[in-house]
Amino acid sequence: EIVMTQSPATLSVSPGERATLSCRASQSVSSNLAWYQQKPGQAPRLLIYGASTRATGIPARFSGSGSGTEFTLTISSLQSEDFAVYYCQQYNNWLFGPGTKVDIK
Amino acid sequence: QVQLQESGPGLVKPSETLSLTCTVSGGSISSYYWSWIRQPAGKGLEWIGRIYTSGSTNYNPSLKSRVTMSVDTSKNQFSLKLSSVTAADTAVYYCARVGYYYGSGSYYGPMGMDVWGQGTTVTVSS
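The joint structure predicted for all components is written out below.
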């Protein structure tokens, strides 16, 4: 079973700063990885698929990179609406990572 | 645009079977995979499984022995049954569509869950 880990668990960032979130797979998932954003009381929203392609309507400040076992989600300049929890998910066996909470510094 | 709506009892007794239905509106249920995901309060997302409109299924190994998914294309609905529930099954349950995309060359593959329902809270308690 492929296990996903994310780091850090919590990331404190000031508005306008860059945020870098990491996701690691226990074995290669190629580029079969998605990132989701979840705000309190809401369903998750697909941000990135294929490790690096933004989903429809996602702002350009969100970018994804990586392949194999190491992946990164970068938010270039954090806006107030970006403070949320971010999950990665590989779609070899569809399991999610534990999430990274991005909060206000 | 496609919308999903979960429905079912909000309270289930321990040892009984949790049953939820997801209704797809604004589009056809055909030719897609459909998933169930759950989230206990204050915790992360757990993928439960997925079903294709042919009825083919894949389940999370940790839940496989208790999960059954089905699809009714005539009603544009798919369903989840989780048997022998305990308090640990208390969670918000989401249904979602697995989207697909054309990549470079001749690649055609999944893009993750691109449409989600709003979620429904299920509490397991006597």
